User: Which sequence fits this backbone?
């Protein structure tokens, strides 16, 4: 890293061997990134634990027990063929025995929506799930706020995340490049990266926090319009769950993209900040130095 | 330009490492946090204090929980927990429609009370259509009628050192090793004096059914359902609840749930 730093300082005079290494991620970005990774890991698995306490989602202000406003539910039933686990989505039933609704070993079957390997704690424990969930909800919210302030000050938002007209013009080509697993390594995020990271940080996570608060009876007194904004407390719960699915989808694509684009280089940039770019002559991306100017 | 930065072997190795990380994810590595003695859990529970303080700050003393209209009452109130107490004293009260039952108000008060249901009904009443939010995640909207708890507290003349109202109930929630455990819970005096905190004897225009807590249950509309005990026989004003149960302030609190059920 010291060599790299020296290389960059000297690069205006003579190209050093490490000329292609650029300082891509500030300490604020790297630190908050890993705190989010940790927090989201626990939030997901304790969230599934909490969901298991009442594994049904509804549309509206309340849960229909005498009427049907359910959109998704998990259940287990004894059938002539033995116990089965079911998933009901918009009135369609799927047999999901072994994973959803009913799971566990052959002699240790449990009627539970999400299986033991997907929840923290592994056994049914709503109280502990809530304790861990709210701790990491605070950690995530606090870190998001710190990141937002730091990124406004250090220019990360304006320079790296805000999509420009040129980015949008480049979008079709960028989609085609991703589809062909053709990756350009430059100081700047490509269009799809900007949209994906911006979407998570400015749409999904804030919506996650707001729908979480919309489920709180105390917040319901403080800001009564919050639950109404999302169409009622139970709709807010359904949106909270749906955003979870979108964040899991983001995580999977994020991992695949890192693996395909070069995991060591990508990991290094998120740990040390330094990122190896493509040779300047090989691509049509702006060079590292002009991007930093 | 190189299309792939890593070899196929590198890709497969990374994928395998990633997959094994995922497989390890849930397992039982964090099950020790279930123990209320866990020190890490103690740290994590600090977030509950933060939640309590911030929600008190945002909601203030008297902000009202959302109220709904008759059109929102679409089903009977969903009962939960104990729905048919089999305790001898309760069944005796139930057999003559709770005419023998009395609500005791005791502890840190100038004037201990013993109120019949008729006396409570004769006091000024409040009716509210509110949403019951269970800690499990479901909600149900119903119309509750009852005596504001603040009126009962005023009549009993609460001593200045009192900090919490404790509800002692008639229903056995658990047959523990040391005998039958009857439901108990507590709220602070801010919520006890909140305008929507009522001792409810009516539900959806009818007398409160047994499954929902007859003859009397409390409504604490800015908190979750487990903070609203049913089958109440005594309200005790205390300055501390450390001597009650395991000292966390309620039956569910003693089993790891947060004392402030605001979220």
Assistant:
């Amino acid at each position: 890293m010291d060599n790299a730093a020296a290389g960059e300082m000297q690069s205006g005079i003579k190209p050093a061997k490490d000329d292609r290494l650029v300082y891509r991620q500030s300490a604020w970005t790297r630190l908050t990134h890993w705190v989010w990774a940790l927090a989201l890991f626990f939030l997901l698995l304790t969230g599934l634990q909490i969901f298991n306490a009442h594994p049904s989602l509804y549309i509206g202000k309340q849960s229909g027990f005498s009427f049907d406003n359910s959109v998704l539910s998990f259940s287990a039933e004894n059938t002539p063929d033995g116990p089965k686990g079911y998933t009901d989505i918009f009135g369609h039933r799927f047999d999901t025995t072994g994973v959803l609704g009913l799971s566990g070993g052959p002699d240790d079957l449990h009627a539970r929506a999400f299986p033991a390997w997907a929840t923290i704690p592994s056994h049914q424990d709503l109280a502990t799930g809530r304790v861990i969930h709210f701790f990491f909800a605070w950690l995530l919210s606090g870190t998001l706020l710190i990141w937002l302030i730091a990124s406004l000050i250090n220019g990360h938002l304006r320079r790296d995340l805000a999509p420009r007209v040129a980015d949008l013009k480049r979008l079709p080509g960028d989609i085609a490049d991703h589809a062909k697993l053709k990756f350009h390594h430059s100081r700047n995020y490509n269009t799809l990266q900007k949209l994906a990271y911006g979407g998570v940080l400015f749409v999904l996570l804030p919506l996650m926090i707001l729908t979480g608060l919309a489920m709180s009876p105390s917040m319901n007194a403080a800001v009564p319009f919050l639950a109404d904004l999302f169409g009622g407390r139970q709709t807010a719960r359904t949106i909270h769950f749906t955003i979870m699915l979108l964040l899991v989808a983001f995580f999977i694509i994020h991992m695949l993209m890192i693996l395909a684009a070069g995991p060591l280089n990508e990991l290094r940039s998120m740990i040390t900040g330094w990122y190896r770019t493509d040779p300047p002559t090989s691509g049509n991306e702006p060079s590292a130095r002009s991007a930093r100017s | 330009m190189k299309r792939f930065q890593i070899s196929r072997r590198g890709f497969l190795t990374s994928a395998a490492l990633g997959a094994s990380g995922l497989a390890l994810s849930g397992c039982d590595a964090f099950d020790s946090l279930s123990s209320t003695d866990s020190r890490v859990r103690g740290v994590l529970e600090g977030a509950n204090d933060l939640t309590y303080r911030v929600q008190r700050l945002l909601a203030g003393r008297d902000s009202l929980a959302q109220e709904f209209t008759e059109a929102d009452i679409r089903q009977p109130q969903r009962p939960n927990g104990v729905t048919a107490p089999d305790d001898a004293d309760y069944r005796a009260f139930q057999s003559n429609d709770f005419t023998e039952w009395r609500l005791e108000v005791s502890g840190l008060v100038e004037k201990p009370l013993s109120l019949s249901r008729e006396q409570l009904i004769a006091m000024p009443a409040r009716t509210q259509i509110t949403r019951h939010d269970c800690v499990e995640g479901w909600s149900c909207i119903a119309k509750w009628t009852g005596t504001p708890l603040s009126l009962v507290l005023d009549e009993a003349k609460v001593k200045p050192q009192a900090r919490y109202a404790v509800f002692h109930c008639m229903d056995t929630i658990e047959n523990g090793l040391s005998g039958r455990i009857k439901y108990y819970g507590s709220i602070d005096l801010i919520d006890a004096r909140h305008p929507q905190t009522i001792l409810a004897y009516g539900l959806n225009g009818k007398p409160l059914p047994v499954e929902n807590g007859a003859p009397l249950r409390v409504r604490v509309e800015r908190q979750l359902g487990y903070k609203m005990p049913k089958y109440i026989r005594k309200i005790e004003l205390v300055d501390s609840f450390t001597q009650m149960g395991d000292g966390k302030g309620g039956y569910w609190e003693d089993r790891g749930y947060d004392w402030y059920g605001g979220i």
